[in-house]
Amino acid sequence: MANSEAMTSYFHRLNGFLDCPRALRRPFLRRTRQMAEDFVQEKPNAGVEDVADYLGDPRELAQGFLETLDPEVLERYHKRKKFLRRGLIVLMAAVILYLGIWVYDLWSRSLPVEVTRTIYVDD
Fold first, then answer.
1. 106 or 67: whose pLDDT is higher?
2. Of 8, 35, 67, 110, which has the fewest beta carbons less than 10 angstroms from its beta carbon?
3. Nearest to 25 by CA among 74, 60, 72
């Protein structure tokens, strides 16, 4: 494909705009890549800009695809994503709190030292 690095950037941006379940996102990306490859086969001299113009702006392309999806599926996906993010934040806060208490306990605890013998060293 014409300048695959630039097209990788295009598809990376497109992927970033696709806020939907992976099971729906992957086939869409595959079909879009196939469309780009078909376009380049039909027009071998086409540059990256030509392919990007043919496919359209990544944000608009993603928005158009998201509008075709079932709103309930997207709502469940967003709720799950939000739940997982909050769960991760709570877990991280709990770990930080635990580590803070543990470090404070170590720092504030005086280690018991017991002298059992006196050793004399002769010169």
1. 67
2. 110
3. 74
